[in-house]
Records
---
Amino acid sequence: MMSRRGRIIIVAGPSGAGKGTIEKAIMKKYSDIQFSVSVTTRPRRDYEIDGQHYFFISKDDFLNKIRRDELVEWQEVYSKNGHLYGTLRSYIDQALDQGKILLLDIDIKGGLNVKKEYPELSVSIFIEPPSLDDLEQRLIARGTDNPEQIKIRLERAGEEMSLGQLFDYKVVNANLSDAVEDFSEILKQTIYHE
Ligand code: 5GP
């Protein structure tokens, strides 16, 4: 086996907690961090690029990948729509073998499963909104969800907050620059420490 020099940064949190914005700022600041591209059955949004935001695949292809054990983990993230999201084993292992530092934007359960699979190579960070009211405002402002979807996300968020304790670190996203600063500090103490 090749020596595994890479690392995995697992980033999860209730949807709309501002994960994406923090991740973008972090990847701008640390140019060696590579976004980990997942597979999904969700339809591509207009601004998304296949192979860059996700590998967009059919449900049949996704089910085949599960059967062939090609996924480290997978989740039906929004059970109502039945969309599936998963982390490709080949993608992760290749990146680790190449010494890459990967950033995984992942749902909470998936993140905990990756942590279990790569305990030594991963750092898990839970992004938390300051409050559920704040989260609701963010979801409305983002404009990618309809009211019904927002209601579901908020219900889930309440349940999900308690799972945050199982992550190595927590970053409260009250304002972007402080959150990015806190996130950077965690990276300095872990990934960039050795
Ligand atoms: P969106 O559809 O808004 O891009 O993402 C929905 C959710 O799916 C987000 O919480 C995102 O973190 C999560 N997600 C993205 N890729 C994966 C993956 O590979 N596995 C799991 N379990 N969740 C993922």
---
Amino acid sequence: MSDGLDTAEKRGQWSGRWGFILASSGCAIGLGNIWKFPYITGENGGGLFVLIYLACITLIGLPIMLAEVLLGRATQKSPVGAYRDFSAKGSPWVIPGWIGVLTGFVILSYYSVVAGWALHYTWLSLQGGFAGMDAETIGNTFGSVFANGNLNLGWHTAFMMLTIAIVLGGVRHGVERIARILMPLLFVMLLVLLGLAMQSDGFAEAFSFIFSPDASKLTRAGVLEALGHSFFTLSLGMGAMITYGSYLKKKEDIVSASVVISILDTIIALVACMVLFPIIFSYGMEPGAGPGLVFISLPIAFSQMAGGAIWATVFFALLVFAALTSAISMLEVVVSTVIDETRLRRTAATLLCGTAIFLFGIPSALSGTEGFAGKEFKDLTAGIFGEGKGKNWFDTFDYLASNWLLPLGGLMIALFVAWRAGAAAREKGFNEGTRFQNLYVAWLMLLRFLVPIGVVAVLLHALEVI
Ligand code: TRP
């Protein structure tokens, strides 16, 4: 039977362990790894920041990922149903499930706009790239892309249509199949780019920037940024891993699968740094350039490189692939919840949710303009964020979702699974299919104590209490 006929009773399923691992890696590996991680590493001075990020992934991210996958696999439901099944009837614990779905909805609406820039830059690279442009022109290009409402709207539409088309195909024939094609391609392209970077003059300098800890450059804010990013990069806190876990058969080993996914995600983030920084250093650019690192500094380097247009095309296509498999996961959470909770089938649910997210993203696509979503929204929100600190539509929702909704969602999942879920069901959920049953107690201790404390620290930081 085709996946297009998914109903609550007849859910999709991965073909097996590797289907799950590839799809989940596709979900985790995204703009967060290739666009965001290098620039925040650059801003925070490298070395020590990377070390703290690795600690956060291992001690906080990984335990939460296991909790999410466990909840999904044990209940075979999306976030809302998963929370419901593991608590008493009528329990308020379904609320964090719904908040997760809402978070996915919001994040995808603006993630698609950034993915649209990657599409646009792939297009520019294909047309000969940035050859012959000087640094200033390239810098202005990025500024004028964001300010061009129609351009952003066009790419946002294209990217959302692509995402919808894949999710329409269902779990195995849509989500898994595209991950099976794009993920290996992404690994190969990144390795090819790594080969290029290793031959450049800046490689040694970049290597020591990424790996030698330098305490003087790290701020307290940087520590918390590392923690927050470990959530985003592993796709935690909104039920994406609950949903992906729910398509797993009971006999699969979720402990080793979660470890593999976290390691792959981390390796890709580190390799992205090892590709970007040598190129950046070789051409005398600054590592701390911020969000423009990938869209300004890198094209400037490509513009001076032999064969730069080809390398640029490879890089930006890679960015599109990474973004696409992540965007799919966000839409899948929303769609899967609608399938589980209503009588709608996959086709109707996907078209409905996809269109709604697309519409909600339109103001994000127009956020660089002088109109309502841009300048006017900035003036409007100055009343909330303080004079001169107003944010456009895009920044407002990015701020709400990444700084508040994800950590809150992660905290809820940790508290729920560690303290609220029945001990027997939890232990069974962990142990089923795995050889690593001896890790159960260590995992539970992390989830009970270290994880909530770490997450609360992020929230207090956001409130400027600590
Ligand atoms: N992890 C992805 C990235 O690094 C983004 C992402 C996909 C995500 N699904 C998510 C983030 C769910 C939070 C929650 O780009």
